[in-house]
Amino acid sequence: MRILIKNGTLIDPANRVQAQLNILTADGKIAAVTAGEPEADLVIDAADKVVCPGFIDIHMHEDPVIDGHLYRDEEKAIFPAMLRMGVTTVVAGNCGDNVCDPADYLDLVDAEGAAVNVTMLCGHTYVRKAAGHQDKYSHVTDQELQEMTRIAERAVKAGCAGVSFGIRYVPGTEEKELLALAALCRQDGKMIASHIRSDAAEVFDSLREFLDIAVKAGVSAEVSHIGSMAGFGQMEEFLKLVGEYKLNGLDVSCDCYPYYAFSTGIGETTYDPGWLERYNCDYDVVEMCEGKYKGQRCTKEIFEEMRRDDPGALTVCYVMKEEDVDRALADPNVMLGSDGVLSSGQGHSRAAGAFARLFSFFVRGGKISLYDAVAKTSAMAKEKLGLPGKGSLGVGDDADIVIFDPLRITDRSTFTDPTVPPVGIDYVILGGEIAAKDGKVVRADLGKAVRIR
Predict the structure, then answer these.
(1) Taking the mean position of all CA atoms in its chain, how far away is CA 247?
(2) CA–CA gap between residue 269 and residue 265 (Å, rounded)
(3) CA 450, CA 453: separation in Å to the nearest integer?
(4) At 259, is the pLDDT very low, low, confident or very high (cuts 50, 70, 90)?
(5) Residue 22 belongs to what H/E stretch?
(6) Which of 146, 157, 200, 248 is the most buried (most CB within 10 A)?
(7) For residue 6, what is the enclosing H or E element?
(8) pLDDT in tens, 79-133
(9) Reduced to 3 states, what is the DSSP secondary structure of residue 354?
(10) Rounded distance, CA 13 to CA 353, Å?
């Protein structure tokens, strides 16, 4: 199918282009970029609209596998939610977590198709458990580490984009674990990403721990969701420290989501004793996203009951400082990562709204420019991961394209209704086919596995 997209403002930061140009797609690729109007099977008039590369989410959490198949509920699964907000390629397996062996997950995406293209990180926490170590607070044995390395090496060689760590969630993690798995990424120039060990006042030592591992291993580093790590008054100094490592030769970048509240399970180590003092707050900053108290703010009694009886229940915690998140997203070394995760349709609104919110709240609100926002949602992730054919609109690139109205695009998901799609996104084109139109999924099987070799 040949599609001509005409009269739109083409923004392609990967190629440093912002101009009114027409795009012709054919056979899943960008066939021509021109001021002319070549013949096509379908013509889309994008007057007054932005035409840009399909968004790339460098940090999200994949749908589960149920009875050997991808979870495909169009209203509750995260991949369709990603597609409806313009995302065409996701990087899953973050924070050390995988729902199954990441190499097998890539194979499953290819076998069944997905709503979006999927690349994977191999999660340290998953590998730790697969090697037989279940206690997150204790150290692994040398024999367990040897098995962890074997499992992770297979995943990296099978095309995973690197290794992710959730050090915060596995306090027993030692340097030898981090180094052994990070070293697997050196030969092919792959990256390591991490939810670092701690936040707030403890964030600087945690950042140094992770970046020192990257230096020792000789690999690229991605610091995950920094708004929820340094968004408590530390962001200026945090970014300064990242810049210091970068100017001393480390390939390091960060991602951040455009919200002022974070989300995690109520049983996670984030809420281990001491969290009230760390965030200087009371229990009512925590809102339950699911379970018997869904939509309610916690009391001490609710918090303790849910942490004991339903530790996997997702929460939203309202403790981040607006000025810190704004500072992060304005930084030239910070890209957008949704950190989206859904549990049967429940979770943080970022899973369905993060990319639209960047344009509605941050661009129209004058916090960042339109061009920079497109760069943070496409070109920066492309460069970081070396994604072939993604994140740019040059001739021969994959025809993954978003067309949106910069004056209308608005996120509508909320913490109580987190899967409501945004408005103002006219078309999402994936592999030269219309995958979503006006906030509705047209095809939910066009996505393929993206392997980094």
Answers:
(1) 25
(2) 9
(3) 10
(4) very high
(5) strand 22-26
(6) 200
(7) strand 3-6
(8) 999 999 999 999 999 999 999 999 999 999 999 999 999 999 999 999 999 999 9
(9) helix
(10) 22
